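Support reply, case 0932

Customer input (verbatim):
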Amino acid sequence: MAGKDEVLKTLTSLKGIGKVKAEAIIAAGFDTVEKIQSASIEELITVEGISDSVAHSIKDQLGSQKETPVEKSEKKPEKTSEKKQVKPKKETKPVKKPQTKQPKKTSAAAPEDYEVKKKPSLDKDLYHHLSVRKQKKDKAPHFLRQEWFRYKRIPKNWHCPDGISSKLRMNKRYRPARVRVGFRGPKKVRGLHSSGFEEVLVYNVSDLEKINAEKQAARIGGTVGTKKRVAIIEKAKELDIRLLNK
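Our regenerated output:
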């Protein structure tokens, strides 16, 4: 038992090895340090809880089975009368092996299957206002309802604060942000989709004929069934109309 206790202390002193892993290694038959040193990585992996990286760490920290200091002291160098001339070794530069580039992992969908989404034909002024609206929206805070955190029955969606003693209504400090006119986007692009198209609800194939494909995009209504939806998608491809939901 004394020998096993010493092995247990040696293993637990290693980095990444706890008491449970150390006991598992000893129970697997590696009850001496010499057995662990002489064991291969494949043998250590078979122990429960020992992964490939942990096995490599144990081998690096303990090292392979080497000669003990007693054995080294017993071997004495033989004295030679003749002095051998030691020639200086020439420094050899390490030869660099050519690195083989591994092929990059491609996604399941091939790039040929990707369809480029249609963009509206707008003037530069409208594109500028769209970018301004996006910048303002990114900077705008998330507006939450007054005291939404206090009661479960109060939803988070915004509602104008009211009440005589409402600190949010009186614009007191350290209160959440309120909805104000300054947070609105430019008037020219108000109501447009983020792509720049004007959304038009579609419920049947005939509604697609009323759409201007250059500035308007179709959105299929929620009550439309599967049969009509398939027909609308096919017709939209023929007329080159962008669908915002397929």
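We compared this against your earlier run and they match. Two observations from our side: Strands lie at 198-202, 216-220. The longest helix spans residues 124-139. Please reopen the case if you see a mismatch on your end.
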